[in-house]
């Protein structure tokens, strides 16, 4: 699957921590897709491999129905074995060049970057897009250092691949990212932590579109 920059407008990252008692990951992902999420990343830290693969296959099929790209967070082997659209890796995971060699030329490769140097290296090693953050304080990653907005802008200026911002982004603070050069945002709780996931996704997509178009 070739990546279109527009696919990165509203990038949803799953987290079962937010699941209500009567919900499944599948049901909340479908609500986010109905609301207009344009990209889906399956992020599982503590699931057994067999259960992970089964869940990944189901959610991949769901995303395909909505023609939304589906990638796996960190786990390159699972992404390859269940034929995900791609994979997203962090700085402490496998080197981007090694990941690209493993997944082949046609899969989507996303890489987390926190500095201009990391961003340029990831691009050189075959990344299709970059996730840069945390752009605001966040509770979902204990080790996430904040990336100043000046650095975010500098990264966008330094590379030719699309950049999305991640970390602590909400409907309220999204407008603060306008003019940075990003083409979208990645969120967890701003979608999956909301009471009405579909409505929250719709509102967030509208706000993000406005922010991206504002120079």
From TrEMBL:
One cellular-component annotation, GO: cytoplasm
InterPro entries attached to this UniProt entry: Aldolase_TIM, ThiamineP_synth_sf, ThiamineP_synth_TenI, TMP_synthase
NCBIfam families hit by this protein: thiE (TIGR00693)
Organism whose genome encodes this protein: Emergencia timonensis
Protein name: Thiamine-phosphate synthase
UniProt-listed GO biological process terms: thiamine biosynthetic process; thiamine diphosphate biosynthetic process
Gene that encodes the chain: thiE
SUPFAM superfamilies registered for this protein in UniProt: Thiamin phosphate synthase
Cofactor(s) the protein needs: Mg(2+)
